[in-house]
């Protein structure tokens, strides 16, 4: 539960520590009802005017998410959310994993990354193409409290790039339950079942304890 007026004002603004526009649009859509219910403003780093060079040197998704959230929390009095997410391909021993964003180089396009993974799995049978998307979301409150929650979605690596509705590795991540890649899912369905959607849903459940 929110306490005094100063803390209340701080809790009314959430900064999500990302510069990825596609991710931010997805986050705002997933959190839309929560934002409206509690009259919260949610901003990206750019929208909040926060510029920080953060070294993500954690060994897990959770560690990296907390590193980002803590770093931004030092620069603002708002609630800070940060995520670290990626694709784990079992045939590649869990790669690209926590290095998903930097896989094959910082500025390498996802077309190149996706094609590389497909090439590595060329000829590999269905039962060995298992993979998952992982998302860890950390929260640091103005009063110093911290939370970290993980969400996942299981699937396989597709045989070709398909779909235009997602971003990143979505066009090669096949979800047998829906018979398509996550880039072929509607935005509404993807937000409901994705790793980020599940992690954010769980995080909003925890956040409600502070806003009620």
Our count of helices gives 8
What percent of the residues sit in helical stretches (DSSP H or I)?
25-40%
* Rg for CA atoms: 18 Å
Query: Into how many domains do the coordinates divide?
Result: 1
- Major β-sheet, in short? 7 strands, mixed
From the helix content, strand content and strand pairing, which structural class follows?
A: alpha/beta
How many runs of DSSP E, i.e. beta strands? 7
Quick overview:
This protein has eight helices and seven strands; from the N terminus they run αβααβααβαββββαα.
Structure description:
There is one protein chain. Residues 1-8 have low confidence and may be disordered. The relative contact order is 0.16. The chain is built from 8 helices and 7 strands. Strand 6 and strand 7 (180-181) form a beta hairpin. It is globular, with a radius of gyration of 18 Å. It has helices spanning 5-11, 21-30, 32-37, 45-48, 61-73, 110-120, 187-193, 195-211; strands at 13-16, 41-44, 79-89, 130-140, 146-157, 173-175, 180-181. It is an alpha/beta fold and 212 residues long. A 7-stranded mixed sheet has the order 2-1-3-4-5-6-7. It has one domain (5-211): Maf protein, CATH 3.90.950.10. The N and C termini lie close together (6 Å).
Feature tags:
35% helix, alpha/beta, 22% strand, 8 helices, globular, 212 residues
Detail the topology: elements first, then pairings:
Blueprint lengths: L4 H7 L1 E4 L4 H10 L1 H6 L3 E4 H4 L12 H13 L5 E11 L20 H11 L9 E11 L5 E12 L15 E3 L4 E2 L5 H7 L1 H17 L1
Parallel strand pairs: 1-2, 1-3
Antiparallel strand pairs: 3-4, 4-5, 5-6, 6-7
């Amino acid at each position: 539960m929110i306490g005094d007026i100063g803390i209340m004002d701080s809790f009314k603004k959430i900064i999500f520590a990302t510069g990825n526009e596609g991710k931010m649009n997805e986050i705002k859509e997933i959190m839309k009802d929560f934002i409206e219910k509690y009259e919260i403003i949610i901003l990206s780093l750019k929208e909040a005017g926060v510029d920080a060079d953060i070294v993500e040197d954690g060994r897990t998704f959770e560690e990296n998410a907390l590193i980002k959230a803590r770093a931004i929390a030092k620069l603002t009095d708002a609630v800070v959310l940060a995520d670290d997410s990626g694709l784990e391909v079992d045939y590649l021993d869990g790669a690209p994993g926590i290095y998903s964003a930097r896989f094959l180089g910082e500025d390498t396009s996802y077309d190149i990354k996706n094609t590389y993974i497909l090439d590595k799995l060329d000829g590999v049978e269905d039962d060995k193409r298992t993979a998952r998307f992982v998302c860890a979301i950390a929260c640091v409150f103005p009063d110093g409290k911290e939370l970290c929650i993980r969400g996942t979605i299981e699937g396989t690596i597709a045989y070709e790039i398909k779909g235009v509705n997602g971003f990143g590795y979505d066009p090669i991540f096949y979800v047998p339950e829906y018979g398509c890649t996550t880039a072929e899912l509607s935005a509404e369905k993807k937000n409901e079942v994705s790793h980020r959607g599940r992690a954010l849903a769980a995080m909003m459940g925890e956040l409600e304890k502070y806003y009620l």
